[in-house]
């Protein structure tokens, strides 16, 4: 099958979060199953393919009754996957992908509309697919355009669309006059299409027009159909419940595996855990707090985007209590300034207890996974979550809130049966989080049982192949006879 991925980030070229890991690993797993996969990405300043060959010099994108022209660059093949980059420096040659800690770039609608149209135009020439698989709001206009402006396009009209929700919290919501600027038909501005409380919602468009919707864990697929987690789009998803599937993300064990991880000081395995102690000492050294006493204390790790979703307010609520517990908390994160400031403050108030680094640092992320004893993810919501799965492979016991993919992937520890891989709590409350961490710290004292729990996690297999096969089943259902909403007629564009 011929599949085009449209995603705004993808490892190893660009990454701010799990979407990039998924786009990279899933495309590779699909290619490994024998499919032809191309990934289309924006060419950011940070992308690092300066010498890529220009394949298409001038792709035309209509905008505000005029035109913009971008080019498409060959990103080469990696592990059987072909990469293409949409090059438009005015939009993508910036210090960040989506915005600064102060907020989103004001022209994000234009940036990702240009990207989405360019993907369609380029795919027409470089190889029209049977499936466009789009990810998150940045590529949400691909299915919208296919069923509106491109509905009669002789090359693309038979392509099916799969849309994956990686996070309902980011929808791409813009003022209504965005539609005419992007030369999209006004009739999209209705309650059953893209209108959302008087604004235009890109994600909603994708949920209405895609042939199939996937969500990155089974639990999150249920959650997003409720008012609590649906961010206002739960009703849209409930209407399409028959075409919504939850598929848990996988782990790229070429990247995240303590047996061959080159970013950690000493490799180790379930059979020989000796190296993990060295990794712990090295982690303490990274934060400048290495000494024999600290090496005996349990270390809790956290690697996170600083965003409201990640449960940071719960940590703030119990910070003073945490500081009194016999443990060290190492935190690596970047993102919203309010949380950056909060952690910097905690680090200052409790030196040696809260060891904080505000940065995006992949090498340190690996060192935390390997060096910590426990890994904390108290998320308010977590569509899939990857770090808890990485943690298990590194023998680092996850402490998670039972939501989304965290709930799907972590089994609660039961000392009576010796089964389970971590600690889970449900109510979103600081007190319950504190009780759960206290319970984990107590369990840590029981060395043989703790080791059993570590090994239970290390044996878990979250590799991508199983999940990739579930995606293929969906593609195969769509390709022979394409269901989904009927094609829309293009309605005359007007400024209204
Ligand atoms: P999300 O996609 O919501 O950010 P996930 O757990 O699905 O959360 O994926 C996060 C990914 O990003 C993981 O690979 C994690 O290691 C990485 N990551 C997040 N923040 C940082 C950071 N500050 N430095 C390095 N890696 C980070």
Can you walk through the features of this model?
Helix content is 36%, strand content 21%. The protein is built from 19 helices and 20 strands. Residues 490-496 have low confidence and may be disordered. It starts with a strand and ends in an 18-residue tail after the last helix. The protein has helices at 18-32, 89-92, 108-126, 141-147, 178-181, 202-209, 218-223, 234-239, 274-286, 292-296, 312-317, 319-324, 337-349, 362-371, 387-393, 404-409, 430-445, 447-459, 464-478; strands spanning 2-6, 36-42, 54-63, 66-78, 81-87, 99-100, 103-104, 131-135, 160-165, 173-174, 195-196, 199-201, 212-215, 244-246, 299-306, 328-335, 354-358, 374-377, 397-401, 423-425. By secondary structure, it is α/β, with parallel strands linked by helices. Bound molecules: adenosine-5'-diphosphate (ADP).
């Amino acid at each position: 099958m011929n599949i085009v991925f449209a995603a705004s980030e993808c490892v190893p070229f660009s990454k701010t979060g799990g979407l990039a890991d998924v786009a990279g690993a899933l495309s590779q797993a699909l290619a490994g199953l024998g499919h032809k996969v191309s990934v289309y990405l924006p060419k950011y300043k940070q992308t690092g393919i300066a010498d890529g060959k220009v394949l298409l010099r001038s792709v035309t994108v209509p905008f505000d009754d005029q035109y913009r022209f971008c080019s498409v660059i060959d990103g080469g093949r990696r592990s059987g996957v072909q990469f293409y980059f949409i090059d438009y420096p005015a939009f993508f040659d910036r210090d960040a992908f989506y915005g600064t800690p102060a907020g989103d770039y004001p022209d994000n609608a234009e940036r990702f509309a240009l990207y989405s149209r360019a993907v369609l135009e380029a795919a027409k020439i470089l190889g029209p697919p049977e499936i466009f698989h789009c990810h998150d709001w940045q590529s949400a206009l691909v299915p919208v355009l296919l069923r509106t402006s491109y509905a009669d396009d002789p090359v693309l009209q038979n392509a099916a669309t799969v849309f994956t929700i990686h996070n309902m919290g980011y929808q791409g919501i813009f003022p209504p006059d965005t539609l005419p600027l992007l030369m999209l038909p006004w009739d999209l501005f209705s309650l059953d299409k893209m209108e959302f409380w008087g604004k235009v919602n890109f994600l909603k468009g994708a949920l209405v027009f895609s042939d199939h919707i996937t969500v990155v864990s089974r639990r999150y697929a249920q959650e997003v159909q409720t008012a609590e987690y649906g961010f206002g789009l739960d009703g849209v998803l409930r209407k399409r419940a028959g075409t919504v599937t939850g598929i848990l993300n996988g782990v790229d064990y070429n990247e995240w595996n303590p047996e061959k991880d080159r970013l950690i000081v000493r490799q180790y395995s379930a059979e020989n855990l000796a190296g993990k102690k060295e990794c712990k000492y090295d982690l303490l050294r990274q934060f400048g707090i290495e000494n024999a006493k600290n090496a005996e204390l349990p270390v809790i790790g956290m690697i996170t985007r600083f965003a409201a979703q990640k449960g940071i307010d719960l940590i703030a609520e119990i910070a003073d209590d945490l500081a009194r517990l016999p443990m060290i908390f190492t935190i690596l994160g970047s993102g919203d300034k309010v949380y950056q400031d909060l952690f910097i403050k905690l680090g200052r108030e409790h030196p040696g207890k809260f060891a904080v680094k505000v940065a995006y640092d992949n090498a340190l992320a690996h060192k935390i996974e390997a060096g910590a004893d426990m890994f904390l993810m108290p998320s308010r919501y977590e569509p899939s979550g990857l770090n808890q799965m990485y943690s298990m492979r590194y023998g680092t016991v996850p402490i998670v809130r039972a939501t989304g993919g965290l709930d799907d992937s972590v089994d609660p520890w039961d000392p009576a049966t010796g089964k389970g891989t971590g600690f889970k709590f449900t109510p979103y409350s600081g007190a319950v989080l504190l009780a759960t961490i206290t319970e984990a710290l107590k369990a840590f004292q029981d060395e043989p049982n703790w080791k059993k729990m570590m090994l239970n996690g290390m044996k878990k297999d979250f590799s991508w192949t199983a999940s990739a096969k579930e995606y293929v089943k969906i593609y195969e259902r769509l390709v022979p006879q394409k269901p989904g909403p009927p094609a829309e007629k293009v309605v005359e564009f007007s400024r209204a």
